[in-house]
Amino acid sequence: MAAMPNQHHASAPDLSTVWLRVFLEVARHGSFTVAARTLGWTQSAVSRQISALEGALGGAPLFDRLPRGVRLTEAGRILVPYAESVTEALHGAGRELAALREAAGGRLRFGAFATADAALVPQALAAFRARHPRVRVSREEGRTPALLDRLTAGQLDLAVVSTTGGAPLEAYDLHHLLDESLYVAVPAGHDLAGRGPVRLARLADADWISGSPRPEGTLLDAALRQDFRPRVAHVVGEWTAKQGYVAAGLGVTLVPALAAASVRPDIALLPVLDEDAPRRAVYAATARGRSLTPAGAAFLAALREAAGTVPAP
Q1: Res 5: pLDDT
Q2: According to the model, what pLDDT value does residue 8 have?
Q3: Staple partner for 105: which of 134, 161, 182, 244, CB 3.0–4.6 Å?
């Protein structure tokens, strides 16, 4: 706490933080006796600490000694906000260091939807594990509504979710990660391969591969916005299986940006041209009113870093 002297400024007094703590207790209670009881000290020990502080500050009294208790002098009143600032800064440092220790050896429970697991989550988790190798991590994969239910029940600390399907997100604290663009996956030899962005209506007559027989509440909502109802020829839930169907020429499918990097080489991706459509938003959701654990906060930071590497819409 001491400042280096120079030719323009006298050196600052070298003050003990213990003195400041005792000073604030006496000021708060207006009594050496009550301050001593609060601190678990003797009254004489409190008196010695105050005397030492007064001596370090040049000898001016900080308290007027009254028949019953003490009262701050003008010097004491000036010192109070500075003493409070110092002690609060030290408490803040202690809290941050404790949080760091907890993040280093705590627990993280999170869930994510399937395409987030293609690149975003693994990249974030690798960075997180490198920084916090002692954290016990448990991970689940599921659709956004199921993940939100688990979050509400306290079984997850954090869930990576999306706006696909219209799941109600209003009841959660949402930490925005990214807005996704969409691609159409076609066989590498398809007539449209390599021709740049395409409107989905160009593929109105194609067979579609989807995780649901109905387009509502899926990525194929984008087709409904372009005034055609896609013909779902194959219902395939698993992402690598969808790629196999496309590569075999059995249909086309929609691919979000999160999964674009994992597409096999015998498939071509065409950016979807849909200027009026809202992008699919991806969030890290946490339960409202429930504090995020230090490990959860550290993982959220890693997710934000990883989200910055996803291709922009």
Answers
A1: 41
A2: 43
A3: 134
